[in-house]
Amino acid sequence: MITLDRANKVFLLPHDKKRTLRQRFVHLFQKGDYERLYALRDVSLDVKEGEFLGVIGRNGSGKSTLLKLVAKVLDPTSGSVSIKGDVAPFLELGVGFQGDLTVKDNIVLYGALLGMDRRQIADKYDWIVEFSGLERFVDAKLKNLSSGMQVRLGFSITVSVESPILLVDEVLAVGDIEFQQKCYDTFDAFRDKGKTMLFVSHDLKAIEEICDRVILLEDGRVIEEGSCRDVLQAYRAISPLARQSGDKRRARMQSKHKI
User: Fold this and answer.
1) Does 141 fall in a domain?
2) Residue ranges in the chain assigned as alpha helix (H)
3) Is residue 32 situated within a structural domain?
4) pLDDT of 124
5) pLDDT for residue 170
6) What is the CATH number of the domain that holds 66?
7) Distance (Å, rounded) from C-alpha 39 to C-alpha 218?
8) Which of 92, 138, 158, 203 is 20–30 Å from 255 (CA)?
9) What are the pLDDT digits (tens) for 115-136?
10) What domain range includes position 193?
11) Residues with Cβ within 8 Å of residue 123, at least 6 apart in sequence
């Protein structure tokens, strides 16, 4: 369903910004000083239909950039990205929301941005409102809702789109326990339907529970790929905080067992 062949993504970071019109004119024919930032380096990857692939790594390792290449938000600098089927990106949920509009109006607007027509939005409307838990707030202006409620709304609209490929970036970091359980149940339903998912998270427990296979990114490269157990062990070896998190989890489990 998803194939990356030696995909690279390079960003140019300027170091000599021209802040005034005079500076721009004086240096009109002078080449700028840029630093090349390799967000992804020669990433080759195959994701099969129905597979849930976890993507882990420290901040700045290239996880979100990888998802944006698959979502076609970004184009690779070199190499290729091939996708079979439509993609539902759970990346920056709520981008495109209008705070001065009601929740009801934002469902229509955001659904249209995701490619849904009026009939599809009408058919999914009641489910979206119920799933988000915002029944009491459909006529309230969105800007009066908490940021967590807004993200829940964005997730609920996005998850209603029928796409065979799902890209999920730290969605479970928002919402209360009840809403997170709804997310887990939804992912289980996706698995039953044979959908494919790329799941990015710093929550290693969620990675273990959701994913079939995991890749570990470091400095834009895939340095480990395989079972959850093996890749998470490799991640804890290079990340002291991840190792401490695992140690604390094991300590809690041992404490419960003693009780």
Assistant:
1) no
2) 21-26, 63-70, 103-113, 118-132, 147-159, 177-192, 204-210, 228-238, 240-258
3) yes
4) 95
5) 77
6) 3.40.50.300
7) 10
8) 203
9) 889 999 999 999 999 999 999 9
10) 2-86+163-258
11) none
